[in-house]
Amino acid sequence: VSVPIHDPYAVPGEYCKVQLHCHTTESDGRFRPRELLRMYKDAGYSFVFITDHNHVTRCDDLNDDSFLALPGTEDTVSYLLQPLGPHLGRLFVDHPTRRGTAQERINRTVEEGGLASLCHPSWTGNLWTGTWSPQAVAALRGYTFLEIVNPHSDTAKDTARWEAVLRERGPEWPVWAVAVDDCHRKDQFNRAWVMVRIAEHSPQALREALASGAFYASTGPEGRFGAGGGAVWAEFRETLEARVLDREGRVRATERGTTVRYSVQGDEGYLRVEGASPRGGIWSQPFWVVESPR
Ligand SMILES: [Zn+2]
Ligand SMILES: [Zn+2]
């Protein structure tokens, strides 16, 4: 039986390291923009989005053929009194959104060519107004990313929110999982990132890859993911404990080693791979095994 597998990694190019969420002295971070970008550049990053609170910080000093700082913001979606409310990450934007509901701000972000992210969904800060509830995660439309690793949040709870929204939506309306530093200070630096598969080092190529899920989230391990011959596979740079999970959260395969391969049966809905080693975790995006209207 041939089952169509939607492989987000079936694109040319190499994986490069990207930080989607960090702060500078332009909001509440400890490092000046140039200082923080120098740290990321030295740590091997190819792209960094500075996402100061309700403010676009620009610093192009270190940009070159292999490194680009890109504009973003983290906007507080205030309901009653500023600065209370959940945080909306916005990438490839040149100004913050000052008002509106979460959905209105997401819509505006998309209309202006940006990509939106639900930050630290289970964060209980801002007097408990900072949470993106499972209901909000399910109801909102048009956002691209959900953070499953953020030092201010709970990865188990956030991954559960991601799985719930994936169950509801197919490949035509994906939500991709991201790991981020949300760096404000040294001990949050270079702890969580995404590895994006791109054929050329340009903002356009990066945007395309981020929008289409050609990346994985990591807090240490490196790997590659793909599908072919009726199977979903992963290869890792180090030995780790890997699991292949389906749409219902059932574990379809486990492996301790540097590879995992799972032959698709057709009833999985989607498959995703996650792994853990003493160095950290690694998470693939979903491979849907259903027909896509695309
Ligand atoms: Zn935040
Ligand atoms: Zn932040």
User: What is the element string, with H for helices and E for strands?
Assistant: EHEEEHEHHEHEEHEEEEEEE
Low-confidence stretches: none
Q: Characterize the main sheet.
A: 15 strands, mixed
Instruction: List the bound ligands.
Output: zinc ion
Helical stretch count? 6
As a whole number of angstroms, the C-alpha radius of gyration is 18 Å
Keywords for this entry:
alpha+beta; 33% strand; 6 helices; binds zinc ion; 15-stranded mixed β-sheet; globular; 294 residues
Summarize the structure.
The chain is of the alpha+beta class. It is built from 6 helices and 15 strands. β13 and β14 form a beta hairpin.
Question: Can you characterise this structure?
Answer:
The chain is α+β, with helices and mostly antiparallel strands. It has helices spanning 33-42, 102-111, 125-128, 134-139, 155-168, 203-212, and strands spanning 14-19, 45-50, 68-76, 87-91, 115-118, 145-149, 176-179, 193-198, 215-218, 223-228, 231-246, 251-263, 270-277, 280-283, 287-288. The protein has a 15-stranded mixed sheet that branches. The protein binds zinc ion (2 copies). The site of one zinc ion (ZN) has 4 residues, from loops. One zinc ion is lined by residues 74, 87, 119-120.
SSE blueprint:
Layout: E1 14-19, H1 33-42, E2 45-50, E3 68-76, E4 87-91, H2 102-111, E5 115-118, H3 125-128, H4 134-139, E6 145-149, H5 155-168, E7 176-179, E8 193-198, H6 203-212, E9 215-218, E10 223-228, E11 231-246, E12 251-263, E13 270-277, E14 280-283, E15 287-288
Parallel strand pairs: 1-2, 2-3, 5-6, 6-7
Antiparallel strand pairs: 1-8, 3-4, 4-5, 8-9, 9-14, 10-11, 11-12, 11-13, 13-14, 13-15
